Amino acid sequence: MPEENSNVGEVTLSRYEQIVAELRDVVEQQTRGQFTIGDRALEVEPMRPRGGPVSENAWSVEASLDMLAGDIGLSLSTVKTARWTASRWPADRRRPGVSFTVHRVLASIDGEADRFAEIGKLPVGKKRWTVDDAKRRVGFQVETPVSRQEKVTAIHSLAQEAEVAAAVTTDFLKRPQVAAKVSRNDKVRVVEEFTRDEHVATTAATSLLRRPDVAFKAMSDDTARFQVNHAQNERSRQAHDHFERTDPVAPAVRSIDRTVEFLDLVTACHAFVAAAGRAVPGLRDRTLSEDESAIVHRGVAKVRATLDWIETAVDTGKVDMDDELAAMLRGE
Question: In this structure, what DSSP letter does residue 283 have?
Fold first, then answer.
């Protein structure tokens, strides 16, 4: 409570209390007026049981209430709301000092006994009902959210449009303190949702697999490893088809006795050159870490030793590899 000499807005506390007292009288008058409108609308068109018979010669409820609303200068929705609220609160059950709006919100409680009892139970720590307190009691969305769940509900309500929800999600996930509180499983689900687009998924997967620790853990999954091997075989097949269609020496190769081993070897060389041509330019202006550089150098050493082995096999027909090369290719 403000101190006696403090202000509320531009008025003193004593003047503010005078305004509150005056406006409570006004609200009480408005409440009586709204209930009067509802009672008279009920007189014109009493509430009917759902599914009950309706006289063919009688005015429809909608038409009668629309006429009444027009004759008193109010909207049809205002008259219909007042009628329904009055039907839920008989005159002897209406609470003085409680606004018509609070009565309307609590009117959604189905059972009469529960509804009549509920309005007598003031919110904890409160001397009067507020509209938000009534909405909390019946589970409606409040205008001024206080609890965490109320704030979450308000955000969901404002972000019903897909574009708004996407923008809000993106902004939230950019905040480290927010991302840190998202559980591991939820983060996985978010990534899965964001990578439904094939192009986005490809870009994300490529970037992640460039990280040695991620690649190692990913290849520990049998399904992931199978899919990578399958993709590599498919890449080799596509490289072979591409070689057949585009390489200048392809006609000469086709005129040679095409053993499976020869074609596989030529395709492997072609695929390696093509893959290196795509990957190496991506290193421009990028400095690899010591671990990354070491991995690449080991790979290059394997490639160089393998190329020497290929040349020896082509020139001499000897395909046996020495122990050092065998150990290197095994990663030892």
Answer: G
